[in-house]
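Methods, example record. To illustrate the input and output format used throughout this study, we show the complete record for NAD(P)-dependent oxidoreductase. The sequence lines were provided to the predictor; the line carrying structure tokens was produced by it.
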Amino acid sequence: MASQKMLKFVTVERDMPDKRPPNLRREDFHEIYAEYAREKAAEQAGRCSQCGVPYCQTHCPLHNNIPDWLRLTAEGRLQEAYEVSQETNTFPEICGRICPQDRLCEGNCVIEQSGHGTVTIGAVEKYITDTAWDEGWVKPIRPAQERTESVGIIGAGPGGLAAADRLRRAGVQVTVYDRYDRGGGLMTYGIPGFKLEKDVVMKRMAQLEEGGVTFRLNCTVGVDIGFDEIRGAHDAVLVATGVYKSRDLQGPGSGSAGIVRAIDYLTASNRVANFGDSVPEYESGELNANGKSVVVIGGGDTAMDCVRTAVRQGATSVKCLYRRDRANMPGSQREVANAEEEGVEFVWLSSPKGFTAGGGHAGAVKGVAVEGPAEGKVAGVMVQKMRLGAPDATGRQAPELIDGSDYVEEADLVIKALGFEPEDLPKLWGVEGLEVTRWGTIKAEFTTGATSLPGVYAAGDIVRGASLVVWAIRDGRDAADAMLEYLSQGAQVAAE
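The corresponding predicted structure is encoded as:
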């Protein structure tokens, strides 16, 4: 009976795929988890309790039908499992790798709450889709009927690509505009290969291109092409640019050489390590941690990407400063554990107030006087120790300064991973009437993504602020559905 394959969580323990030893994974940018074998995937999928109210599905932004594809996997019906998983998720192999499952589906698993250890949902999802690619179950995009309407999508990140896939399958003519030389957005240039190897992203790019999506790369809107020109060329437009403006740090020495933005640092590393590109800033050492004492400032997933990248580049030491404690950091706890295994030191309850640079500096590094480097080059981070006080407006305990606890943390390279903000798109693009919120994100209708301009939609981080890839996929799919309805209404009006 099929039911005998499930409910094994009492007798079968949770077992993640093998993880490469830290001393080996520090040496390259390959993914750190091995693939499940078929029997192991079925065994782990069979731990699902098939509960009546699946909290895993509820807490998945895409509301993936997780219990059903776990059951199908346990029964050895892998092709059906893949078909169910891809009905709600445009890129399941990507989500299986980079979603923070510990905060979403797995973190809300019923058997996890009962103390039996969560079902390894992400690892099974990755296994199903990787198998689908290997077996040829991932079919080319072949619309049943071509449509004459066209849509322009600005941004080739997860939101834009998810929308492109959905629109193209409906027969709409789709052109994607992106500033970079490769599609994928942060999946290509922001997320390191040890979390998401780039051939995984490039396979989806090739599928979209072969399915009829046109890509105009190295194309910056407002420079190489005007927004009004894009609107004039298409029946509808989707803005899915993401947010790329880095939050900054002020204070003494903040302009010193050797203090860099996380996005620049990760982009350079991904270009070199994953594509073999020549990057002058990497070769000069500006964006290369090799032989350096590195301090990363921030506590989110981008900070985790930076510290683990610095380890692989050969940094002599890597430290992460975060103003709250471990329990209150926004990044994935799984990523923190991986970083610690690889030799990263976390300095909790610590906040920077400035930077030392040039010709020696006042104070000491951990109590030892240090001679500074040449003028203008960062030598250290001036650190203020913190404690957690009363909760702030979000309910999290607010950090407070501890008087007299300042010290200097030595650093040859400082990476600012403080999050991202939206660029001022109406100003950059010279467009009037595109309303934005007080945070600078595009004001768009909930679920549809419709903006203040007729026929213009928006999706992903440019609407919700810096968020997760899985949310961008959800937004892109929702916006595509709304655009299809808009295009159909336009066709109906034209026919009348």
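Annotations derived from this record:
Residues 150-243+422-495 form a domain with the FAD/NAD(P)-binding domain fold (CATH 3.50.50.60).
DSSP finds 19 helices and 16 strands in the chain.
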